[in-house]
Specification:
Chain lengths: ~200, ~200
Amino acid sequence: MIRLVIADDHAVVRMGLRFVLKINPDIEVVAEAADGDEAMKAVREHNPDILLLDIRMPGRDGLSALDEILAAFPKLKVLMLSTSDAEEDIFRSIEAGARGYVVKDNRPEIIVDAVNKVAAGETYMTDRVRRIYEMRKTLPDLTTRELELLRLTVRGLTNKDISAVLEISVDTVKAHLRHVFAKMDVATRAEAVAEAIRRGLASS
Amino acid sequence: MIRLVIADDHAVVRMGLRFVLKINPDIEVVAEAADGDEAMKAVREHNPDILLLDIRMPGRDGLSALDEILAAFPKLKVLMLSTSDAEEDIFRSIEAGARGYVVKDNRPEIIVDAVNKVAAGETYMTDRVRRIYEMRKTLPDLTTRELELLRLTVRGLTNKDISAVLEISVDTVKAHLRHVFAKMDVATRAEAVAEAIRRGLASS
DNA sequence: AGGAATATCACTCAAAGGTGTGACATTCTC
DNA sequence: GAGAATGTCACACCTTTGAGTGATATTCCT
Protein backbone atom coordinates (compact mmCIF):
# COMPACT_ATOMS: atom_id res chain seq x y z
CA MET A 1 0.00 0.00 0.00
CA ILE A 2 1.31 3.39 -0.99
CA ARG A 3 0.22 6.01 1.50
CA LEU A 4 0.11 9.45 -0.08
CA VAL A 5 -0.59 13.08 0.84
CA ILE A 6 -1.85 15.52 -1.79
CA ALA A 7 -0.88 19.18 -1.41
CA ASP A 8 -2.47 21.53 -3.92
CA ASP A 9 -4.38 24.74 -3.39
CA HIS A 10 -7.04 23.94 -5.98
CA ALA A 11 -9.80 21.78 -4.54
CA VAL A 12 -10.77 20.79 -8.07
CA VAL A 13 -7.29 19.50 -8.76
CA ARG A 14 -7.17 17.58 -5.50
CA MET A 15 -10.39 15.84 -6.40
CA GLY A 16 -9.15 15.14 -9.90
CA LEU A 17 -5.96 13.66 -8.50
CA ARG A 18 -7.84 11.44 -6.07
CA PHE A 19 -9.84 10.18 -8.98
CA VAL A 20 -6.85 9.68 -11.23
CA LEU A 21 -4.91 7.85 -8.56
CA LYS A 22 -7.66 5.27 -8.31
CA ILE A 23 -6.11 3.74 -11.43
CA ASN A 24 -3.74 2.09 -9.01
CA PRO A 25 -5.73 0.53 -6.16
CA ASP A 26 -2.57 0.26 -4.08
CA ILE A 27 -2.47 4.01 -3.65
CA GLU A 28 -4.25 5.41 -0.64
CA VAL A 29 -4.69 9.15 -0.22
CA VAL A 30 -4.36 9.65 3.52
CA ALA A 31 -4.63 13.44 3.63
CA GLU A 32 -4.97 16.62 1.61
CA ALA A 33 -3.38 20.01 2.13
CA ALA A 34 -4.06 23.38 0.55
CA ASP A 35 -0.75 25.07 1.24
CA GLY A 36 2.79 24.45 2.44
CA ASP A 37 2.02 24.67 6.13
CA GLU A 38 -0.86 22.26 5.88
CA ALA A 39 1.38 19.92 3.93
CA MET A 40 3.91 19.94 6.76
CA LYS A 41 1.18 19.25 9.26
CA ALA A 42 -0.26 16.43 7.18
CA VAL A 43 3.14 14.76 6.83
CA ARG A 44 3.73 15.01 10.57
CA GLU A 45 0.37 13.49 11.38
CA HIS A 46 0.16 10.78 8.76
CA ASN A 47 3.75 9.94 8.00
CA PRO A 48 3.00 9.04 4.36
CA ASP A 49 5.21 7.26 1.86
CA ILE A 50 4.86 10.00 -0.69
CA LEU A 51 3.99 13.66 -0.74
CA LEU A 52 2.56 15.06 -3.96
CA LEU A 53 3.45 18.72 -3.63
CA ASP A 54 2.24 21.59 -5.78
CA ILE A 55 4.66 24.47 -6.20
CA ARG A 56 2.48 27.52 -6.59
CA MET A 57 0.30 27.88 -3.58
CA PRO A 58 -0.86 30.94 -1.67
CA GLY A 59 0.74 31.44 1.71
CA ARG A 60 3.70 29.14 2.06
CA ASP A 61 4.55 27.81 -1.36
CA GLY A 62 5.70 24.32 -2.20
CA LEU A 63 9.39 25.09 -2.63
CA SER A 64 9.90 26.71 0.72
CA ALA A 65 7.81 23.99 2.37
CA LEU A 66 9.94 21.37 0.63
CA ASP A 67 13.11 22.49 2.40
CA GLU A 68 11.50 22.39 5.78
CA ILE A 69 9.73 19.11 5.24
CA LEU A 70 12.85 17.34 3.99
CA ALA A 71 14.84 18.75 6.90
CA ALA A 72 12.37 17.09 9.26
CA PHE A 73 11.74 13.97 7.18
CA PRO A 74 14.83 13.38 5.06
CA LYS A 75 13.65 10.05 3.79
CA LEU A 76 10.22 11.21 2.65
CA LYS A 77 9.68 10.82 -1.08
CA VAL A 78 8.41 14.06 -2.50
CA LEU A 79 6.99 14.30 -6.00
CA MET A 80 6.60 17.87 -7.18
CA LEU A 81 3.53 18.71 -9.17
CA SER A 82 3.36 21.93 -11.10
CA THR A 83 1.50 23.78 -13.79
CA SER A 84 4.65 25.37 -15.07
CA ASP A 85 7.87 24.04 -16.41
CA ALA A 86 9.82 27.15 -15.40
CA GLU A 87 13.48 26.25 -15.24
CA GLU A 88 13.94 27.68 -11.82
CA ASP A 89 11.09 25.68 -10.31
CA ILE A 90 12.37 22.43 -11.73
CA PHE A 91 15.94 23.15 -10.74
CA ARG A 92 15.21 24.24 -7.21
CA SER A 93 12.90 21.29 -6.64
CA ILE A 94 15.42 18.68 -7.66
CA GLU A 95 18.31 20.43 -5.93
CA ALA A 96 16.25 20.58 -2.77
CA GLY A 97 15.82 16.83 -2.90
CA ALA A 98 12.51 16.14 -4.59
CA ARG A 99 12.40 12.68 -6.17
CA GLY A 100 10.45 13.78 -9.21
CA TYR A 101 8.71 16.57 -11.03
CA VAL A 102 5.54 16.24 -13.10
CA VAL A 103 3.67 18.91 -15.00
CA LYS A 104 -0.09 18.83 -14.55
CA ASP A 105 -0.90 18.84 -18.20
CA ASN A 106 0.49 15.39 -18.62
CA ARG A 107 -1.88 12.54 -19.19
CA PRO A 108 -3.23 11.06 -15.96
CA GLU A 109 -1.35 7.82 -16.44
CA ILE A 110 1.90 9.74 -16.39
CA ILE A 111 1.10 11.10 -12.98
CA VAL A 112 0.17 7.67 -11.63
CA ASP A 113 3.29 6.26 -13.20
CA ALA A 114 5.37 8.93 -11.52
CA VAL A 115 3.84 8.11 -8.14
CA ASN A 116 4.52 4.41 -8.64
CA LYS A 117 8.10 4.98 -9.71
CA VAL A 118 8.85 7.36 -6.88
CA ALA A 119 7.19 5.03 -4.38
CA ALA A 120 9.46 2.26 -5.65
CA GLY A 121 12.46 4.40 -4.86
CA GLU A 122 13.22 5.60 -8.35
CA THR A 123 13.31 9.20 -9.43
CA TYR A 124 10.91 10.43 -12.05
CA MET A 125 11.11 13.13 -14.65
CA THR A 126 9.65 13.30 -18.13
CA ASP A 127 12.23 13.75 -20.87
CA ARG A 128 11.16 17.31 -21.34
CA VAL A 129 11.62 18.15 -17.66
CA ARG A 130 14.96 16.39 -17.56
CA ARG A 131 16.11 18.40 -20.56
CA ILE A 132 15.13 21.64 -18.89
CA TYR A 133 16.85 20.56 -15.70
CA GLU A 134 20.07 19.69 -17.46
CA MET A 135 20.02 22.98 -19.33
CA ARG A 136 19.49 24.97 -16.18
CA LYS A 137 22.21 23.10 -14.36
CA THR A 138 24.82 24.46 -16.73
CA LEU A 139 23.78 28.05 -16.12
CA PRO A 140 25.72 30.00 -13.51
CA ASP A 141 23.73 30.84 -10.40
CA LEU A 142 22.95 34.41 -9.56
CA THR A 143 24.22 35.50 -6.17
CA THR A 144 21.63 36.56 -3.62
CA ARG A 145 22.63 40.16 -4.18
CA GLU A 146 22.30 39.85 -7.91
CA LEU A 147 18.92 38.24 -7.53
CA GLU A 148 17.84 41.06 -5.27
CA LEU A 149 18.87 43.63 -7.86
CA LEU A 150 17.15 41.69 -10.61
CA ARG A 151 13.90 41.57 -8.67
CA LEU A 152 13.93 45.31 -8.20
CA THR A 153 14.62 45.69 -11.89
CA VAL A 154 11.61 43.52 -12.72
CA ARG A 155 9.51 45.79 -10.56
CA GLY A 156 10.39 48.64 -12.89
CA LEU A 157 13.00 50.48 -10.84
CA THR A 158 15.73 52.39 -12.66
CA ASN A 159 19.36 52.08 -11.68
CA LYS A 160 19.06 55.32 -9.76
CA ASP A 161 15.97 54.07 -7.94
CA ILE A 162 17.75 50.88 -7.00
CA SER A 163 20.83 52.72 -5.79
CA ALA A 164 18.58 54.82 -3.57
CA VAL A 165 16.64 51.85 -2.19
CA LEU A 166 19.69 49.74 -1.43
CA GLU A 167 21.86 52.70 -0.48
CA ILE A 168 24.68 51.77 -2.81
CA SER A 169 26.15 53.74 -5.69
CA VAL A 170 24.71 53.69 -9.17
CA ASP A 171 28.01 52.29 -10.36
CA THR A 172 27.61 49.32 -8.09
CA VAL A 173 24.11 48.76 -9.36
CA LYS A 174 25.42 48.77 -12.89
CA ALA A 175 28.22 46.39 -11.98
CA HIS A 176 25.78 43.89 -10.46
CA LEU A 177 23.35 44.12 -13.32
CA ARG A 178 26.16 43.69 -15.80
CA HIS A 179 26.96 40.40 -14.13
CA VAL A 180 23.29 39.46 -14.09
CA PHE A 181 22.90 40.17 -17.79
CA ALA A 182 26.01 38.16 -18.59
CA LYS A 183 24.84 35.20 -16.52
CA MET A 184 21.37 35.33 -18.02
CA ASP A 185 22.80 35.81 -21.48
CA VAL A 186 20.72 38.88 -22.32
CA ALA A 187 21.75 42.26 -23.61
CA THR A 188 19.24 44.68 -22.13
CA ARG A 189 17.23 45.11 -18.99
CA ALA A 190 13.93 44.75 -20.81
CA GLU A 191 15.06 41.36 -22.04
CA ALA A 192 16.26 40.50 -18.55
CA VAL A 193 12.84 41.29 -17.14
CA ALA A 194 11.10 39.01 -19.60
CA GLU A 195 13.64 36.24 -19.07
CA ALA A 196 13.47 36.54 -15.31
CA ILE A 197 9.72 36.09 -15.40
CA ARG A 198 9.90 33.25 -17.90
CA ARG A 199 12.49 31.38 -15.89
CA GLY A 200 10.63 31.91 -12.66
CA LEU A 201 13.40 33.97 -11.08
CA ALA A 202 11.01 36.78 -10.31
CA SER A 203 7.29 37.18 -10.62
CA SER A 204 5.57 39.96 -12.43
CA MET B 1 -31.33 19.29 -16.67
CA ILE B 2 -28.32 21.45 -17.36
CA ARG B 3 -26.30 20.01 -20.20
CA LEU B 4 -22.68 21.06 -20.00
CA VAL B 5 -19.41 20.74 -21.91
CA ILE B 6 -16.08 20.97 -20.11
CA ALA B 7 -13.12 22.35 -22.05
CA ASP B 8 -9.82 22.24 -20.20
CA ASP B 9 -6.47 20.89 -21.29
CA HIS B 10 -5.71 19.24 -17.93
CA ALA B 11 -7.30 15.83 -17.67
CA VAL B 12 -6.94 16.03 -13.90
CA VAL B 13 -8.93 19.24 -13.79
CA ARG B 14 -11.63 17.82 -16.04
CA MET B 15 -12.06 14.90 -13.70
CA GLY B 16 -12.08 17.18 -10.70
CA LEU B 17 -14.74 19.33 -12.30
CA ARG B 18 -16.90 16.34 -13.14
CA PHE B 19 -16.67 15.35 -9.52
CA VAL B 20 -17.36 18.81 -8.17
CA LEU B 21 -20.35 19.29 -10.45
CA LYS B 22 -21.99 16.23 -8.95
CA ILE B 23 -22.97 18.53 -6.08
CA ASN B 24 -25.83 19.52 -8.33
CA PRO B 25 -27.48 16.38 -9.73
CA ASP B 26 -29.22 18.48 -12.39
CA ILE B 27 -25.93 19.07 -14.13
CA GLU B 28 -24.97 16.59 -16.78
CA VAL B 29 -21.55 16.68 -18.38
CA VAL B 30 -22.21 15.71 -21.99
CA ALA B 31 -18.70 16.08 -23.38
CA GLU B 32 -15.13 17.08 -22.64
CA ALA B 33 -12.62 18.92 -24.77
CA ALA B 34 -8.89 19.48 -24.38
CA ASP B 35 -8.50 22.56 -26.54
CA GLY B 36 -10.41 25.24 -28.40
CA ASP B 37 -11.01 23.24 -31.53
CA GLU B 38 -12.31 20.27 -29.62
CA ALA B 39 -14.56 22.63 -27.69
CA MET B 40 -16.06 23.89 -30.95
CA LYS B 41 -16.60 20.37 -32.12
CA ALA B 42 -18.20 19.31 -28.84
CA VAL B 43 -20.60 22.25 -28.93
CA ARG B 44 -21.59 21.46 -32.50
CA GLU B 45 -22.24 17.82 -31.70
CA HIS B 46 -23.93 18.11 -28.33
CA ASN B 47 -25.54 21.54 -28.42
CA PRO B 48 -25.13 22.02 -24.65
CA ASP B 49 -26.71 24.65 -22.40
CA ILE B 50 -23.38 25.72 -21.02
CA LEU B 51 -19.77 25.59 -22.04
CA LEU B 52 -17.18 25.71 -19.28
CA LEU B 53 -14.17 27.04 -21.14
CA ASP B 54 -10.59 27.24 -19.92
CA ILE B 55 -8.53 30.10 -21.29
CA ARG B 56 -5.00 28.81 -21.43
CA MET B 57 -4.87 25.77 -23.61
CA PRO B 58 -2.28 24.54 -26.06
CA GLY B 59 -3.21 24.88 -29.70
CA ARG B 60 -6.29 27.03 -30.05
CA ASP B 61 -6.79 28.84 -26.76
CA GLY B 62 -10.07 29.59 -25.08
CA LEU B 63 -10.32 33.24 -26.03
CA SER B 64 -9.93 32.76 -29.73
CA ALA B 65 -12.26 29.77 -29.63
CA LEU B 66 -14.79 31.88 -27.74
CA ASP B 67 -15.18 34.33 -30.60
CA GLU B 68 -15.74 31.61 -33.12
CA ILE B 69 -18.09 29.61 -30.97
CA LEU B 70 -20.26 32.59 -30.11
CA ALA B 71 -20.34 33.60 -33.76
CA ALA B 72 -21.82 30.19 -34.57
CA PHE B 73 -23.92 29.82 -31.40
CA PRO B 74 -24.76 33.33 -30.19
CA LYS B 75 -27.11 32.13 -27.51
CA LEU B 76 -24.76 29.61 -25.95
CA LYS B 77 -23.91 30.43 -22.34
CA VAL B 78 -20.18 30.35 -21.89
CA LEU B 79 -18.56 30.38 -18.46
CA MET B 80 -14.86 31.07 -18.57
CA LEU B 81 -12.65 29.13 -16.24
CA SER B 82 -9.13 30.25 -15.63
CA THR B 83 -6.14 29.86 -13.38
CA SER B 84 -5.23 33.48 -13.73
CA ASP B 85 -7.00 36.70 -12.98
CA ALA B 86 -4.99 38.64 -15.56
CA GLU B 87 -6.92 41.78 -16.43
CA GLU B 88 -6.70 41.19 -20.11
CA ASP B 89 -8.14 37.69 -19.92
CA ILE B 90 -11.09 38.80 -17.85
CA PHE B 91 -11.73 41.84 -20.00
CA ARG B 92 -11.51 40.07 -23.31
CA SER B 93 -13.71 37.22 -22.10
CA ILE B 94 -16.53 39.45 -20.98
CA GLU B 95 -16.24 41.77 -23.96
CA ALA B 96 -16.39 38.75 -26.25
CA GLY B 97 -19.68 37.74 -24.67
CA ALA B 98 -18.87 35.22 -21.96
CA ARG B 99 -21.55 35.09 -19.27
CA GLY B 100 -19.17 34.63 -16.41
CA TYR B 101 -15.58 34.17 -15.29
CA VAL B 102 -14.40 31.97 -12.44
CA VAL B 103 -10.90 31.42 -11.17
CA LYS B 104 -9.99 27.82 -10.47
CA ASP B 105 -8.71 28.41 -6.99
CA ASN B 106 -12.18 29.22 -5.78
CA ARG B 107 -13.96 26.75 -3.57
CA PRO B 108 -15.83 24.07 -5.53
CA GLU B 109 -19.19 25.41 -4.45
CA ILE B 110 -18.38 28.71 -6.12
CA ILE B 111 -17.86 26.95 -9.41
CA VAL B 112 -21.09 25.02 -9.12
CA ASP B 113 -22.88 28.19 -8.10
CA ALA B 114 -21.49 29.95 -11.15
CA VAL B 115 -22.74 27.18 -13.42
CA ASN B 116 -26.18 27.34 -11.83
CA LYS B 117 -26.42 31.11 -12.13
CA VAL B 118 -25.22 31.19 -15.69
CA ALA B 119 -27.57 28.34 -16.61
CA ALA B 120 -30.42 30.38 -15.12
CA GLY B 121 -29.54 33.20 -17.48
CA GLU B 122 -27.69 35.39 -15.03
CA THR B 123 -24.12 36.52 -15.39
CA TYR B 124 -21.58 35.48 -12.81
CA MET B 125 -18.43 37.08 -11.53
CA THR B 126 -16.88 37.06 -8.09
CA ASP B 127 -16.43 40.49 -6.55
CA ARG B 128 -12.75 40.32 -7.13
CA VAL B 129 -13.13 39.52 -10.82
CA ARG B 130 -15.74 42.25 -11.23
CA ARG B 131 -13.38 44.76 -9.64
CA ILE B 132 -10.59 43.81 -12.01
CA TYR B 133 -12.98 44.02 -14.94
CA GLU B 134 -14.21 47.47 -13.98
CA MET B 135 -10.65 48.66 -13.51
CA ARG B 136 -9.57 47.37 -16.87
CA LYS B 137 -12.59 48.87 -18.59
CA THR B 138 -11.41 52.35 -17.72
CA LEU B 139 -8.03 51.80 -19.31
CA PRO B 140 -7.58 52.92 -22.90
CA ASP B 141 -7.09 50.12 -25.38
CA LEU B 142 -3.83 49.75 -27.19
CA THR B 143 -4.14 49.83 -30.96
CA THR B 144 -3.09 46.72 -32.82
CA ARG B 145 0.02 48.48 -33.96
CA GLU B 146 0.89 49.54 -30.44
CA LEU B 147 0.33 46.02 -29.21
CA GLU B 148 2.59 44.73 -31.93
CA LEU B 149 5.35 47.11 -30.86
CA LEU B 150 4.84 46.20 -27.21
CA ARG B 151 5.16 42.50 -27.95
CA LEU B 152 8.45 43.04 -29.74
CA THR B 153 9.61 45.11 -26.79
CA VAL B 154 8.75 42.28 -24.43
CA ARG B 155 10.86 39.99 -26.56
CA GLY B 156 13.83 42.17 -25.77
CA LEU B 157 14.18 44.13 -29.00
CA THR B 158 15.57 47.66 -28.83
CA ASN B 159 13.92 50.53 -30.67
CA LYS B 160 16.46 50.16 -33.42
CA ASP B 161 15.77 46.44 -33.70
CA ILE B 162 12.06 47.10 -33.90
CA SER B 163 12.48 49.77 -36.54
CA ALA B 164 14.48 47.29 -38.59
CA VAL B 165 11.97 44.48 -38.17
CA LEU B 166 8.93 46.57 -38.99
CA GLU B 167 10.72 48.73 -41.53
CA ILE B 168 9.68 52.01 -39.97
CA SER B 169 11.85 54.77 -38.55
CA VAL B 170 13.16 54.73 -35.02
CA ASP B 171 11.22 57.93 -34.39
CA THR B 172 8.00 56.21 -35.24
CA VAL B 173 8.86 53.37 -32.91
CA LYS B 174 9.44 55.87 -30.15
CA ALA B 175 6.19 57.65 -30.87
CA HIS B 176 4.22 54.41 -30.63
CA LEU B 177 5.95 53.29 -27.49
CA ARG B 178 5.41 56.68 -25.90
CA HIS B 179 1.71 56.19 -26.44
CA VAL B 180 1.92 52.66 -25.11
CA PHE B 181 3.72 53.77 -21.96
CA ALA B 182 1.20 56.53 -21.40
CA LYS B 183 -1.75 54.18 -21.84
CA MET B 184 -0.18 51.60 -19.55
CA ASP B 185 0.81 54.24 -17.05
CA VAL B 186 4.45 53.19 -16.80
CA ALA B 187 7.62 55.20 -17.10
CA THR B 188 10.18 52.83 -18.56
CA ARG B 189 10.32 49.98 -20.98
CA ALA B 190 11.42 47.51 -18.34
CA GLU B 191 8.33 48.38 -16.33
CA ALA B 192 6.23 48.09 -19.46
CA VAL B 193 7.56 44.59 -20.03
CA ALA B 194 6.67 43.48 -16.53
CA GLU B 195 3.23 45.11 -16.72
CA ALA B 196 2.51 43.64 -20.13
CA ILE B 197 3.23 40.17 -18.83
CA ARG B 198 1.28 40.73 -15.64
CA ARG B 199 -1.75 42.01 -17.48
CA GLY B 200 -1.64 39.23 -20.02
CA LEU B 201 -0.98 41.57 -22.95
CA ALA B 202 2.08 39.61 -23.96
CA SER B 203 3.62 36.41 -22.79
CA SER B 204 7.17 35.98 -21.74
C1' DA C 1 -18.50 65.83 -44.99
C1' DG C 2 -16.09 66.56 -40.82
C1' DG C 3 -13.69 65.20 -36.86
C1' DA C 4 -11.22 61.70 -34.19
C1' DA C 5 -8.02 58.18 -34.09
C1' DT C 6 -4.12 56.06 -36.12
C1' DA C 7 0.29 55.64 -38.18
C1' DT C 8 3.98 57.86 -39.86
C1' DC C 9 8.35 60.89 -39.56
C1' DA C 10 11.68 64.76 -37.90
C1' DC C 11 14.44 67.31 -34.68
C1' DT C 12 16.25 68.47 -30.14
C1' DC C 13 17.73 67.59 -25.45
C1' DA C 14 18.42 65.38 -21.18
C1' DA C 15 18.44 61.22 -18.61
C1' DA C 16 19.33 56.52 -18.18
C1' DG C 17 21.49 52.44 -19.62
C1' DG C 18 25.44 49.59 -20.99
C1' DT C 19 30.78 48.63 -21.80
C1' DG C 20 35.52 48.45 -20.44
C1' DT C 21 38.76 48.57 -17.02
C1' DG C 22 40.62 48.75 -12.59
C1' DA C 23 40.65 48.45 -7.70
C1' DC C 24 39.97 46.90 -2.85
C1' DA C 25 38.05 44.55 1.21
C1' DT C 26 35.55 40.59 2.88
C1' DT C 27 34.05 36.09 2.87
C1' DC C 28 33.96 31.50 1.36
C1' DT C 29 36.29 27.36 0.06
C1' DC C 30 39.70 23.96 -0.68
C1' DG D 1 46.76 30.13 4.12
C1' DA D 2 46.19 30.80 -0.91
C1' DG D 3 42.92 31.56 -4.24
C1' DA D 4 38.25 32.29 -5.83
C1' DA D 5 34.01 34.52 -5.42
C1' DT D 6 31.45 38.40 -3.85
C1' DG D 7 30.21 43.07 -3.05
C1' DT D 8 31.63 47.50 -3.28
C1' DC D 9 33.02 51.86 -5.88
C1' DA D 10 35.10 55.01 -9.66
C1' DC D 11 35.73 57.00 -14.21
C1' DA D 12 35.44 57.39 -19.11
C1' DC D 13 32.87 56.60 -23.10
C1' DC D 14 29.24 55.60 -26.14
C1' DT D 15 24.38 54.05 -27.05
C1' DT D 16 19.74 53.95 -26.07
C1' DT D 17 15.78 55.62 -24.27
C1' DG D 18 12.27 59.00 -23.17
C1' DA D 19 10.12 63.88 -23.28
C1' DG D 20 8.61 67.71 -25.85
C1' DT D 21 6.78 69.53 -29.99
C1' DG D 22 5.05 69.60 -34.41
C1' DA D 23 3.53 67.90 -38.77
C1' DT D 24 1.15 65.00 -42.48
C1' DA D 25 -1.50 61.30 -44.71
C1' DT D 26 -4.88 57.75 -44.04
C1' DT D 27 -8.56 55.49 -42.04
C1' DC D 28 -12.56 55.09 -39.30
C1' DC D 29 -16.80 56.61 -37.40
C1' DT D 30 -20.91 59.26 -37.38
